[in-house]
Write a structure and sequence with these properties.
heterodimer; A: 235 residues; mainly alpha; globular; B: 139 residues; alpha+beta; OB fold (Dihydrolipoamide Acetyltransferase, E2P); 5-stranded mixed beta barrel; 33% helix; elongated
């Protein structure tokens, strides 16, 4: 069995971590923004609009990653009957939703000058909108139910239904004709994005991941404090 | 190592996941017609009846096919197998150019002729600085 340390021990670490994470986030974000906005070259076709991608793509990645993480945590929490997993999942969700919305908005801002439209009901964009609705449902479910058993059941169900959408988002651009372009970065073959543009993309992804970690730690600390004040020292 | 209940719950989750994925696959498969954002010129060649319905056609703008007049623009959309003539009056997006992807929304007049009411430029997955593009073209 996986041994979960006492909440007090977890709290000792997570309550001190945010200030270091915040410092690291500011450093990485500054480097990332300088790379993305000043040092990286413009694109041969879309010129400076390419810089929107350095926010859009990392935001989309992080929101997909967090939703997958939430699902995995909820299912593990259900299988191993461990409440801590659900609290971690709950604390991760808000930054996932924020990055999902950022991806949609920046995509729209990029779409207008590039495609000629703010919005298109193509498979990639629509499935991404559906993901944000699942995030909303998930977060609202945590507020609706006060009973632990009920809230766990509801949120786990939401993640199970929502996770089906994740591969659909990923492969929508390959399965169907979409207005959205297919992925430029493939793990197995050579990327169709120039290395000079890959640098800011990677740094910005790291910055956003650190931001998610920061928000997660703050949320998770709140959960731990709430547990303590309830007088429940065991998870 | 793990209790019987844990194993059963694990199996339960696997089965739920599998059945949901399969049903989602079937639903999407049957909805393919409405999930695709645009049809290719080859798809248009294959349709049996031409309805007066708003559709989208996508492909590449054929090289040297754009003809501009004062109030109209004509060009050919090709998927390298079949092609279709498009006429449009209005402003085209900045990225609309020959040899690049395009999506036209409008009405089909017949199998070879399409009247667009909206033109969208499709961007491909290639990102590179202008110098690299110039170097590539030289080779």
């Amino acid at each position: 069995m996986i041994k979960i340390p006492e909440p007090n021990k977890i709290f000792a670490i997570t309550s001190r971590a945010p200030k270091y994470v915040f410092f690291l986030f500011v450093v990485v974000l500054s480097v990332g923004l300088i790379e993305a906005l000043l040092l990286s070259p413009e694109d041969y076709k879309q010129s400076h609009s390419v810089r929107i991608m350095y926010v859009h793509v990392p935001a989309a990645w992080i929101s997909l990653g967090i939703f997958s993480g939430i699902t995995l945590l909820s299912l593990s929490g259900y299988i191993f009957k461990n409440k801590n997993f659900f609290l971690i999942a709950k604390s991760l969700a808000p930054s996932g939703l924020v990055f999902n919305i950022i991806a949609l908005v920046t995509g729209s801002i990029w779409g207008k000058p590039t495609w000629g439209t703010w919005w298109a009901w193509d498979a990639r964009i629509t499935s991404m909108l559906i993901l944000s609705l699942f995030y909303l449902m998930y977060l609202i479910a945590w507020r609706i139910y006060n009973d632990d058993e009920k809230v766990i059941r509801a949120t786990t169900l939401i993640t199970i239904f929502g996770i089906i959408n994740v591969p659909v988002i990923k492969y929508s651009v390959n399965w169907w004709n979409t207005l959205h372009q297919p992925a430029s970065i493939n793990l197995l073959s050579e990327s169709s994005i120039h290395s000079s543009m890959l640098v800011p993309l990677t740094i910005m992804t790291a910055a956003f991941a650190l931001f998610s970690l920061l928000i997660f730690l703050m949320k998770y600390n709140t959960e731990l404090i709430r547990l303590k004040t309830k007088g429940l020292d065991r998870l | 190592m793990y209790g019987r209940k844990v194993k059963l719950r694990f199996l339960f989750v696997i089965i739920i996941g599998l059945s949901l994925f399969l049903s989602a696959f079937l639903i999407l498969k049957s909805l393919e017609e409405s999930v695709v954002y645009f049809k290719s010129p080859t798809d248009i060649k294959l349709i049996k009846e031409i309805e007066y319905k708003k559709i989208r056609i996508g492909g590449m703008v054929k090289k040297n096919s754009i003809q501009m007049s004062t109030d109209q623009i004509n060009f050919i959309i090709t998927d390298l197998r079949n092609e279709i003539n498009v006429t449009y009056s209005g402003i085209v997006p900045n990225l609309f150019s020959e040899g690049k992807g395009v999506v036209a929304e409008g009405y089909l007049k017949d199998r070879n002729f399409f009247e667009a009411s909206k033109i969208l430029a499709k961007h491909d997955e290639n990102y590179m600085p202008p110098e690299v593009k110039a170097a590539l073209e030289k080779n």
